[in-house]
Amino acid sequence: MITSKLTSKAQTTIPQAVRAALNLHEGDELEYRLEAGRVILTKRANETMDDPFRTFDEWHSNADAEAYAEL
Question: Where is the SpoVT-AbrB domain (predicted)?
């Protein structure tokens, strides 16, 4: 059994075994589904339709952010 504790601010650390099983990385979104008194935790699927430029990694530099900050 894998466990974790809840902090006073309702936060917890997702144990490494769970992160590995779900292939979780920084910035990933999680989805919680309640079923019969249990919680099903899954990695939220990437929805690229909301940001069509999300896949263009070459446009994510600090220089680009500065150049387009005033637009």
Answer: 1-46
- Sign of the CA dihedral with 36 first, then 39, 43, and 48 last: positive
**Helix, strand or coil for residue 48?**
helix
Q: Which residue ranges form the domains of the chain, and what is each CATH number?
A: 16-67 (2.10.260)
Place of tokens 């999300």: 54
Backbone angles phi, psi at 22, to 5 degrees: -95, 0
**Under 8 Å between Cβ of 13 and 4:** yes
Task: Note the pLDDT of residue 51.
Answer: 65
Q: What is the distance between the alpha carbons of residues 46 and 55, in angstroms, rounded to a whole number?
A: 11
